[in-house]
C-alpha cells in the first residue's frame, strides 16, 4: 500500500528539482504531476511525470488558495499519494499549511534533500537556525506534504489582474483585487533581468560600504571580473541602495558561483546560507574577527577602499578579466 | 476591534554557534529574545491600537523564560500578553505551535485579527500562520507589506517574488507580515521594566484546552532525528599584510585555483 508520489507543477518554478527528489525516493511508485495551470498541461515543462492531473484554477495559487487547497485535498483522498511536494514560495505555503492540517499527515517546508531511512521512512533535510545547521526530519505521517526549495523559472510571467471588482459578502472569503509585476524600487532598467543564481562570479557588498556613491568602486571590480553585483540584506532591505534582485542570503537569493567575493560583509549566518555552495570564497573586511572569514577560502583583513581599487587595477593590467 | 499578535521566543541566531564536535547548535549559550519577524507584527498591532483604538493582546506558545519577551512586547505597544507554556515548547514543531496558538486564541475570546511574522528565525518554516488559520477556520494572507482595516474587512497588499498582489479579506482573519511592512519602534530597558507584572499572564497548555497527547511526534507527523553543521569546509587563509601585498597574494591564489581564466 505505497501509493504514488505527487508533485505540484507551477510554471513559474523549475519542476525538475521536485520530480528529481520524488524519483530519488520512489520505490516502484509512479510520479504524478498535479497541475494548477490548465495551459501548462501537456507542455514541455512536464516530460518527467508518469501522469498529469489538472487541478484547475487560473495557474496562480494566490487567486484562490482556499479553493486550490480544497481541490488538492480531494485529489489526495482519491489518489492517496505517499508524498505531495510543492515548490517553496509564499503562495504555496498558504496552500500547503492548511492542507497539511486537514490531511493530518506530515507537513515540512523548505526541504533541501529527500531520502529514505532503512525502514523506508521518508527523511527530509532542511536548514534550522537561519542556516546554521541541517536537520534531518523523519516524516511519520501520510501523506508527507513538503515544500521543496526550487529555482524560479525566470521565463514565466504572471497574469496581471486589474484593480476593481466587487467584494463578496460571505465570511471566510479572500478576494484578489489586483496583481501586477512590481517595479524595482532601486536600480535601473539593467536590473530587470538579473540572474544572480546563475552567475559564474559574484561580488557582494555589505555595510562596510559607507556611501551609496561608493558602489561605483564595487561595480568597477564587477566589470573587470565579469561578475554580477550582489548585496547583503542591510543594503537592500534597510538602506535600499540596491534592489531585492541583487540580495544574497536566507531572505534573498542563493548563488553558486565559481568565485564569490564578499566585500564589507560581516558574515552573519543568514548571509552565509545564500553563498555557501560557492566554489571559492574571498572575503574583504576590516574586522579580523568577522564571521565571514570562517566561511572564506582566502580573506583579506583590510579596508575595501584600499583593496578594491588595487585589486581592480591589478586584474585589469594582468589577464584577469573574462 | 480586538487584535491578537502571536510572537515567538527564539535563540538569537546571530549569536548562536555550532558545537564543532557534534555539529549540534549550542542553544544553552545563546541569548534569547523575540523573533525578529514578529517585531514587525507587533509594530503593526501597535499602529492599529494607536490609530484605530484596537485592543491588542500578545500571545506566545513558549518556554517560561519567554515572560521577558512578553514584557518587551507589551512595552512595544500592546495592552497585555498571554504566555502558554509547557515542555513541548522546547521543540521546533510548527504543527505543535499552531495547535497550541489556536487554543490560545480561542481561550482569549473575541478576536477579529491575528497578526504574526511570516517566519521564525530558528525554524524558518513559514507554516504556523497558515496552519493557525486552518485551525480557526478563517482566511489567511502571507507576506503582507501593507495592511488597512475598515469595519469587518481588511485590505492586505503583499509581495511574492516580483509580484505585488492586493487582497480583500473578511474578518476574522490571520495575516502574517513581511519585514518590509514597517520599522519596529525601539523599546528601551526602562520601558520594559515599567510594564506591570499583572499585564503578563502565564498558563499551562491544559488550562487553555490543549490535549497534550496530540503534541506527541506521532500525532504531529514528524520528528527531528539528527542535526549537523551546515558549514562547508573552507581553507580560511588570512592575509593581513599591507593592501598591495595582500592583493598580489590573492591574485596568486585565484590564478592557482584556475579562477581567473
Features:
heterodimer; A: 322 residues; alpha/beta; six-stranded parallel beta sheet; five-stranded parallel beta sheet; elongated; B: 261 residues; two-stranded antiparallel ribbon; 7 helices; 30% strand
Task: Give a verbal description of the structure.
The complex is a heterodimer of chains A (322) and B (261). Helices cover 24% and strands 25% of the residues of chain A. Chain A is an alpha/beta fold. Chain A has a six-stranded parallel sheet with strand order 3-2-1-4-9-5, sandwiched between helices. Chain A has a five-stranded parallel sheet with strand order 12-11-13-14-15. In chain A, strands 6-7-8 form a three-stranded antiparallel sheet. In chain A, β6 (113-116) and β7 (122-128) form a beta hairpin. In chain A, α2 (65-79) packs across α3 and α4 packs parallel to α7 (304-317). The radius of gyration of chain A is 22 Å and the shape is elongated. The N and C termini of chain A lie far apart (55 Å). Chain B has 261 residues and is of the alpha/beta class. Chain B contains seven helices and 13 strands. Chain B has helices at residues 36-52, 67-75, 94-108, 128-136, 189-193, 217-220, 243-256; strands at residues 2-6, 9-11, 32-34, 55-62, 80-85, 113-117, 140-150, 153-160, 163-170, 173-177, 200-204, 222-229, 237-239. The N and C termini of chain B lie far apart (64 Å). The chains are: A alpha/beta (322), B alpha/beta (261). Chains A and B meet through α3, β5, β7, β8 and β10 of A and α3, α4, β7, β8 and β9 of B. β8 of chain A pairs antiparallel with β12 of chain B.
Amino acid at each position: 500500500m505505497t501509493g504514488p508520489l505527487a508533485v505540484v507543477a507551477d510554471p513559474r518554478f523549475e519542476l525538475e528539482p521536485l520530480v528529481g527528489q520524488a524519483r530519488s525516493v520512489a520505490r516502484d511508485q509512479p510520479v504524478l504531476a498535479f497541475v494548477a495551470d490548465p495551459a501548462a498541461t501537456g507542455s514541455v515543462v512536464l516530460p518527467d511525470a508518469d501522469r498529469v492531473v489538472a487541478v484547475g484554477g487560473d495557474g496562480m495559487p494566490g487567486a484562490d488558495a482556499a479553493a486550490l487547497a480544497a481541490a488538492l485535498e480531494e485529489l489526495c483522498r482519491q489518489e492517496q499519494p505517499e508524498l505531495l511536494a510543492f515548490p517553496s514560495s509564499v503562495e504555496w505555503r498558504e496552500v500547503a499549511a492548511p492542507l497539511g492540517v486537514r490531511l493530518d499527515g506530515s507537513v515540512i517546508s523548505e526541504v533541501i534533500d529527500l531520502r529514505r531511512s532503512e525502514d523506508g521512512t521518508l527523511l527530509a533535510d532542511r536548514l534550522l537556525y537561519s542556516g546554521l545547521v541541517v536537520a534531518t526530519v523523519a516524516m511519520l505521517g501520510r501523506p508527507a506534504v513538503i515544500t521543496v526549495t526550487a529555482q524560479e523559472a525566470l521565463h514565466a510571467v504572471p497574469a496581471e489582474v486589474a484593480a476593481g471588482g466587487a467584494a463578496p459578502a460571505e465570511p471566510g472569503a479572500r478576494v484578489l483585487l489586483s496583481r501586477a509585476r512590481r517595479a524595482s524600487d532601486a536600480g535601473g532598467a539593467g536590473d530587470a533581468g538579473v540572474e544572480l543564481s546563475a552567475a559564474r562570479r559574484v561580488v557582494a557588498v555589505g555595510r562596510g560600504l559607507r556611501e551609496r556613491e561608493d558602489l561605483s568602486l564595487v561595480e568597477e571590480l564587477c566589470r573587470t571580473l565579469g561578475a554580477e553585483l550582489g548585496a547583503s540584506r542591510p543594503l537592500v532591505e534597510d538602506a535600499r541602495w540596491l534592489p531585492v534582485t541583487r540580495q544574497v542570503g536566507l531572505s534573498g537569493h542563493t548563488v553558486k558561483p565559481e568565485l564569490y567575493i564578499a566585500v564589507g560583509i560581516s558574515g552573519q549566518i543568514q548571509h552565509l546560507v545564500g553563498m555557501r555552495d560557492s566554489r571559492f570564497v574571498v572575503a574583504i573586511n576590516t574586522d579580523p574577527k568577522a564571521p565571514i572569514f570562517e566561511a572564506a577560502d582566502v580573506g583579506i583583513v583590510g579596508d575595501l577602499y584600499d583593496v578594491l581599487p588595487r585589486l581592480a587595477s591589478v586584474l585589469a593590467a594582468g589577464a584577469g578579466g573574462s | 476591534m480586538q487584535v491578537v499578535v502571536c510572537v515567538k521566543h527564539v535563540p538569537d541566531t546571530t549569536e548562536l554557534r555550532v558545537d564543532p564536535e557534534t555539529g549540534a547548535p549550542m542553544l544553552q549559550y545563546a541569548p534569547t529574545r523575540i523573533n525578529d519577524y514578529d517585531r514587525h507584527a507587533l509594530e503593526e498591532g501597535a499602529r492599529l491600537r494607536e490609530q484605530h483604538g484596537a485592543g491588542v493582546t500578545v500571545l506566545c506558545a513558549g518556554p517560561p523564560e519567554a515572560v521577558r519577551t512578553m514584557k518587551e512586547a507589551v512595552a512595544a505597544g500592546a495592552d497585555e500578553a498571554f504566555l502558554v507554556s509547557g515542555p513541548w515548547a522546547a521543540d521546533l514543531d510548527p504543527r505543535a505551535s499552531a495547535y497550541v496558538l489556536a487554543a490560545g486564541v480561542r481561550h482569549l475570546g473575541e478576536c477579529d485579527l491575528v497578526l504574526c511574522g511570516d517566519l521564525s528565525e530558528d525554524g524558518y518554516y513559514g507554516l504556523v500562520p497558515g496552519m493557525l488559520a486552518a485551525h480557526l477556520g478563517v482566511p489567511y494572507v502571507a507576506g503582507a507589506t501593507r495592511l488597512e482595516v475598515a469595519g469587518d474587512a481588511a485590505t492586505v497588499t503583499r509581495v511574492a517574488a516580483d509580484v505585488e498582489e492586493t487582497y480583500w479579506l473578511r474578518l476574522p482573519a490571520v495575516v502574517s507580515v513581511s519585514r518590509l511592512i514597517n520599522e519596529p519602534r525601539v523599546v528601551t530597558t526602562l520601558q520594559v521594566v515599567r510594564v506591570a507584572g499583572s499585564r503578563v499572564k502565564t498558563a499551562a497548555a491544559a488550562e487553555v484546552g490543549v490535549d497534550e497527547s496530540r503534541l506527541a511526534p506521532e500525532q504531529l507527523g514528524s520528528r527531528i532525528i539528527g542535526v549537523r553543521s551546515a558549514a562547508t569546509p573552507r581553507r580560511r587563509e588570512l592575509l593581513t599584510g599591507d593592501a598591495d601585498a595582500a592583493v598580489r597574494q590573492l591574485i596568486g591564489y585565484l590564478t592557482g585555483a584556475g579562477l581567473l581564466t
